[in-house]
């Protein structure tokens, strides 16, 4: 029996891309150091994996919402699809193969009503903020870091919409050993 992957934000080794963004952003690291390049690629792949998980997760979220909340979930889904495509472009610009999404993900808890769907959306955004925090810190490429910082802020705002809670340091709450994390 194959286990369904948990909704996590770690890249899946050995997978291949299922498409790339039409416009390739400037994402060349400002260093010729292969370790820096590998670190940037790994952090970008992790962010892409996070976006893949959010695209899947918002499909679940939207199924349990109605009216304005469902419209908001659709908007968030579209934002995550766009960000996923942008990350594919960055990876291609770095001469890396963007990793494909898993066909399904195991949810961290049961989602069976509007309240649990909202909580799940908040959890998705918390986890995504953590990988974007890593991407901000990953290397010297200013455009990539700026995009990651913008995505981190967007995740924090979406989390606030779904949970009504604001984190003083988005992305750090998911860190082991962090206060409340």
Can you give a write-up of this model?
It comes from Phytoactinopolyspora alkaliphila. InterPro entries: DUF4439, Ferritin-like, Ferritin-like_SF. It holds the Pfam family DUF4439. This is Ferritin-like domain-containing protein. The chain is mainly alpha-helical. The chain has a domain of 122 residues: Ferritin. It contains four helices and no strands. Helix 1 packs antiparallel against helix 2. The chain is globular. The N and C termini lie far apart (32 Å). The N terminus is likely disordered.
What characteristics describe this protein?
181 residues, mainly alpha, Ferritin, 4 helices, 57% helix, globular, disordered N terminus, DUF4439
Count of distinct strands: 0
- Under CATH, the homologous superfamily of the domain at 34-100 and 109-163 reads Ferritin, core subunit, four-helix bundle
CATH third-tier fold name of the domain at 34-100 and 109-163? Ferritin
- Radius of gyration from the CA trace? 16 Å
Contiguous low-pLDDT stretches (5 residues minimum) are 1-24, 26-31
Total of DSSP H or I helical runs spanning 4+ residues: 4
What's the overall average pLDDT, rounded?
82
CATH class of the domain at 34-100 and 109-163: Mainly Alpha
CATH architectural designation of the domain at 34-100 and 109-163: Up-down Bundle
Task: Give the overall shape.
Answer: globular
List the helices and strands and how they pair.
Layout: H1 34-63, H2 67-93, H3 114-137, H4 142-163
Helix pairs in contact: 1-2, 1-3, 3-4
């Amino acid at each position: 029996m194959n286990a369904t992957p948990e909704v996590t934000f770690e890249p899946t080794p050995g997978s291949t891309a299922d498409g790339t963004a039409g416009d390739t952003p400037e994402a060349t690291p400002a260093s010729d150091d292969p370790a820096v390049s590998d670190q940037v690629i790994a952090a970008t792949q992790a962010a892409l994996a996070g976006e893949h998980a959010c695209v899947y997760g918002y499909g679940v979220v939207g199924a349990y919402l109605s009216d304005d909340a469902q419209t908001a979930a659709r908007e968030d889904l579209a934002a995550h699809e766009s960000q996923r495509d942008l990350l594919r472009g960055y990876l291609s610009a770095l001469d890396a193969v963007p990793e494909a999404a898993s066909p399904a993900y195991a949810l961290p808890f049961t989602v069976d009503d509007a309240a649990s769907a909202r909580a799940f959306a908040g959890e998705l955004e918390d986890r995504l903020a953590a990988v974007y925090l890593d991407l901000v810190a990953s290397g010297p490429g200013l455009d990539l870091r700026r995009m990651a910082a913008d995505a981190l802020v967007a995740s924090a705002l979406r989390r606030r919409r779904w949970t009504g809670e604001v984190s003083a340091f988005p992305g750090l709450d998911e860190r082991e050993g962090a206060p409340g994390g």
